[in-house]
User: Fold this.
Amino acid sequence: MYIIEDGRAPNPRRVRIFLAEKNIDVECRQIDINELDQKDAAFSRLNPLQRVPILVLDDGRVISESVAICRYFEALNPDPPLMGQTPLEQAVIEMWNRRMELNLLMPIAQVFRHTHPAMAEMEVPQVPAWAEANRPRVQEALEIMETQLAMQPFIAGDSYSIADITGLVAVQFMKPARIPLEDSLVNVGRWLQEIAGRPSSIA
Assistant:
């Protein structure tokens, strides 16, 4: 069993942090998405969407999509729980993880992909206006996050979860996307300092 990834990309990092929190060691094999390795025939047979990461199981079956990979390992190794235990916890964590993914990480990625010169070959065409359209969406998501973190220590409640992992990767991805984190977001700042200090954050 092994993971194919590009260690610089945000979605593989979500999986690595998840595995580090669970103290699970899985071999990671690197490709270079800047060199378009994900578009070669061998990788495309494993994942026709040509995206990382993918998990290749011992029997050759493949799981793609970062949350699906995390869910697989959560089922195999439920402690510590990062996706909830009760039906309500699971639903709330899923809700907030989706919000972090769709409303924060994705708009940040759109800003990055449509402005950064290194993305020119992967994002054809680059549309700077689309990047600018996504900047306010990032701020809207951060304001929602700020309100949530004013009421509780972690994004989905009183316990660290996959929603915090997605949120961390998203907020730290703002730097290469050249999106500033406003000082007024004091609760996001408090949360970021705490989450970024966890040993798993360097995975």
